[in-house]
Amino acid sequence: MQNLRTVTHWLSIASLIALIGLCLAWELWLAPLRPGGSWLALKALPLLAPLFGILRGRLYTYKWSSLLIWLYFTEATVRAWSDTGLSARLALAELVLSLLFLVSAVLFIRASRALSQQKI
Q1: How far is the C-alpha of 67 from the C-alpha of 3, rounded, in Å?
Q2: pLDDT, one tens digit for every residue, the chain (120 residues)
Q3: DSSP letter at 43?
Q4: Distance between CA 20 and CA 33 in Å, rounded?
Q5: Rounded to two decimals, what is the model's pTM?
Q6: For this UniProt entry, which segments traverse the membrane (predicted)?
């Protein structure tokens, strides 16, 4: 269980940082809504809130951030369906990263619970 917890911890960190980077790059340089960048880049700010708790492996942060990530999953689904070209491909990348974070966070929570029950 400790190995699963470690792997999912690092996978959560990597996917969260990649999602922050994707959100910023998408709305500032790659395919912004307006030339020169978009205020929609601020959508990356809520992802910074759980970052330090995820880095430290705090279980409570994993729990509430697994709910927060659904907002990014929803936005990615809508934009993958409605946008075209590069923006649609970036939306698919956001969709994959948000799902990767969600799955790794849930597996981290389960592995942490299993480890705490083994110690009792």
Answers
A1: 24
A2: 789 999 999 999 999 999 999 999 999 999 998 888 888 899 999 999 999 999 999 999 999 999 999 999 999 999 999 999 999 999 999 999 999 999 999 999 999 999 888 876
A3: G
A4: 18
A5: 0.93
A6: 7-30, 88-109
Q: Rounded CA gap, 20 and 63, in Å?
A: 19
Distance between CA atoms of 26 and 29, rounded to whole angstroms? Answer: 6
Rounded Cα gap, residues 41 and 53, in angstroms: 22
Per-residue tokens: 47: 């992802």
Burial of 41 (0-12, 13-18, 19+ CB in 10 A): middle
CA angle in degrees (0–180, nearest 5) for 25-63-23: 5
Domain ranges of the chain: 2-119
* Angstrom distance (rounded) from CA 101 to CA 82: 23
